[in-house]
Design brief:
Layout lengths: L2 H22 L19 E2 L23 E2 L2 E2 L2 E2 L4 H8 L3 E10 L2 E8 L2 E9 L12 E4 L16 H8 L2 E6 L5 E6 L7 E7 L15 E4 L10 E5 L3 H4 L2
Antiparallel strand pairs: 1-5, 2-3, 3-4, 5-6, 6-7, 7-8, 8-13, 9-10, 9-12, 10-11, 11-13
Length: about 240
């Protein structure tokens, strides 16, 4: 492995750690809306042509693929596997589409099946997608994917509290005011639940004030989880 590859992995790992710190801590950072805005650049098919670096399971139809969100990944996409390996697992049923720009500091590859985005693979903005570097960030807006406790996109925050305890919602005006919920018993430190936007409509009900970081444990009765983020926080999940 050359210096350029090692340096890229180190920088991306640091960026993922910063991303998760912003989500959990209480200063959430930006996550995208489930679908890119109409003004976004027209998606283009990701390249180059994948080359598998290790054997992968036979391609599996979308309905038969795992739909679990855990600290290791989302469905068939696992942290540490390469994009090329994920292509082999999903086979021709999946379309990989570049979305750039996607969010602050990150571009993405949308993984689509049956006309729907299953999840996004995050990578550093401005870098060409590299088929043979490990996946270090995943985000899903798809309600098919759920944690072991049954919490996924579209689940109410009140219902999620039944599984994970009291929720604290927060957003940071210096990070696009993206809002996140963190629970007393998080399923994992590297999983974050996006719930709204402080510039538009928040899930949380916040006290009056103009601080950079806003936080509350009150939320609207109709508030739901809008997307779920899983990132790599250690070298071992990025290693091949």
């Amino acid at each position: 492995m050359n210096f350029r590859t090692v340096h890229f992995r180190t920088v991306q790992l640091a960026a993922m750690a910063l991303l998760m710190t912003g989500c959990n801590a209480p200063a959430p950072i930006a996550t995208p809306e489930p679908e890119p805005a109409a003004s976004s650049p027209t998606p283009t098919t990701a390249s180059p042509t994948p080359t598998a670096t290790s054997p992968a399971p036979s391609p599996t139809a979308a309905a038969e693929q795992p739909a679990v969100i855990s600290e290791t990944g989302i469905g068939a996409a696992q942290l540490g596997m390469t994009i090329a390996q994920l292509r082999q697992v999903l086979g021709t049923s999946a379309e990989f589409v570049v979305q750039a720009p996607f969010m602050v500091d990150f571009d993405a590859i949308a993984v689509r099946q049956n006309g729907q985005v299953q999840y996004y693979i995050l990578y550093l903005a401005g870098q060409p997608p590299n088929e043979n570097l490990p996946i270090q960030g995943l985000l899903t807006p798809n309600s098919r994917y759920k944690t072991a406790a049954g919490v996924g996109v579209g689940v109410s925050i009140a219902e999620a509290e039944s599984a994970y305890g009291k929720a604290t919602l927060s957003y940071n005006t210096e990070n696009e005011s993206r809002e996140y919920a963190r629970f007393e018993r998080q399923p994992a430190d590297n999983i974050s639940f996006a719930t709204g936007n402080g510039n538009q409509q928040t899930a949380g009900v916040y006290p009056a004030g103009n601080g950079i970081v806003r936080e509350t444990q009150e939320f609207r009765s109709d508030a739901v989880i809008q997307s779920i983020l899983v990132v790599c926080l250690a070298e071992d999940c990025a290693a091949q």
